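Design review, sub-item: ligand-bound model
Attendees: FS, YL, KQ
YL presented the inputs for the iron/sulfur cluster complex:
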Amino acid sequence: MTRKHNNLEYKVLQIIKESGSQGILQSQLWKRIGATSREGSRVSLKLEKAGLIERIRELHDGKWTYKLIAKKRVVTLDSVMDIPCIFCLQQDRCDVGSNISPTTCKRLSEWLEKQS
Ligand code: SF4
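KQ shared the predicted structure:
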């Protein structure tokens, strides 16, 4: 998986999570991130397959679409004990938007992939 794809999936998941229990319509989400519906559908199917979101079929303005809702996951201490950030030497300099960032961190992406 490329970094561009990882970033898009991360961004999509964050927006879906921010929409809370109401969720967000696929079409609104794609507009917001500037993705084509083909690109967007690929990402949402992937997130659904990973068990991170639910896709619920919904009629909107006379057209069938999907509402995307984040699944709540039970987090136990054991499940996060090996997250790479805990012993990372870059931790103090790691921040969203900076050169070292959780949105582009390969080690964190790989760890997240193992969780799904
Ligand atoms: S996201 Fe990556 S660079 Fe940042 S603290 Fe975690 S492991 Fe380190």
